[in-house]
Amino acid sequence: MVDSNEKPAPAAGPHGGAVFVVTGTERLSPTLQRVAFEIRGVPAEEVEEFTASPDTDMYVKLIFPAPEGLTAEELEANSPGEDEDAIVMRTYTLHSVAVEGERITGVVDFVAHGEGLAGPWALAAAEGDWLEVFGPGGNYAPDAGAARHLLAGDAAALPAIAAAMRAMPAEAVGDVVVETPHPSDMGLLPEHPGLRVRHVTPWETPGDALAAAVRQVHVEPEGLQVFVHGEAHAVMKKIRPWLKDLGVTVRGASISGYWRQGRSEEGFRLWKRDNRPED
Ligand SMILES: Cc1cc2nc3c(=O)[nH]c(=O)nc-3n(C[C@H](O)[C@H](O)[C@H](O)COP(=O)(O)OP(=O)(O)OC[C@H]3O[C@@H](n4cnc5c(N)ncnc54)[C@H](O)[C@@H]3O)c2cc1C
């Protein structure tokens, strides 16, 4: 079994991935725990995938030993292929990546939600701890030709929203709507002269406050680029249909759930399979 707290970290991941070695942690806000990493074991020909990607939502799959009690269906949904170790993946945005000579470093901001594998791992992480990672992937970059932007999400999407805002030119205009428990979480977002930022605190059901706040945005579909991510039911069943009804092209747009209330990432993958939008 892979033990990510075993030190020292290996030079490469035991399942062919890279290795994130923790170099420090910082409690950014009551909601967010930042973990800084050195990224080791990336083959030379793949370094640019980390350092030169245009995608601002660049993410990695963090590998954990599979917890006890998963059904075969859950394991199959969240396990990367045939492997003698039972492992599962957790998906996290790379808030930023930097290169100094041959050293690649990065930062991931975790919602400290206290359940599951990754959230608690981040809270307990200490220098020298390591995790194997697969990736990176990414699906969104701000379009300089977009007439307007709509960025909406919850705390899990804050790192990606922050990265998108950092990458937008000063002339970019639009709305940013974020649902997080604490106003201080918003400190993760940079200032931007053309983006109007609104913070809402969650209601009883995660994503409801976000959906209500997004409905208050004046949406002009022509030339609008959207980035909407957060609790899956809110995003896919409330916000996406509303945008579609307004005439926004939702198919192929960057709109998806990042997690599902009451489900681990395994369960969420099954939810996604069963709730694929037909439009
Ligand atoms: C492309 C992508 C990028 C993402 N980037 C980030 C990121 O940068 N930072 C980040 O924190 N998350 C991010 N997420 C979401 C993250 O992958 C999930 O929240 C994941 O389920 C966390 O794993 P876990 O082991 O902590 O909890 P799990 O074992 O998956 O779930 C355990 C329990 O915790 C609940 N839970 C899971 N996530 C949350 C949450 N955010 N808030 C409240 N309850 C929760 C579940 O509903 C479940 O009941 C991203 C997801 C995607 C798809």
From TrEMBL:
PANTHER family given for it? FERRIC REDUCTASE, NADPH-DEPENDENT, NADPH-DEPENDENT FERRIC-CHELATE REDUCTASE
Q: Where is the FAD-binding FR-type domain?
A: 15-143
Domain of life, per the record? Bacteria
Q: What is this protein called?
A: FAD-binding FR-type domain-containing protein
GO molecular function terms listed in the Swiss-Prot or TrEMBL record: oxidoreductase activity
Which InterPro entries is this protein grouped with? FAD-bd_FR_type, FNR_nucleotide-bd, Riboflavin_synthase-like_b-brl, SIP_FAD-bd, SIP_fam, SIP_rossman_dom
Listed PROSITE patterns: FAD_FR
Instruction: Tell me the Gene3D superfamilies matching this sequence.
Output: Nucleotide-binding domain of ferredoxin-NADP reductase (FNR) module (3.40.50.80), Translation factors (2.40.30.10)
Q: Which organism is it from?
A: Corynebacterium sphenisci DSM 44792
Q: What is the lineage of its organism?
A: Bacteria, Bacillati, Actinomycetota, Actinomycetes, Mycobacteriales
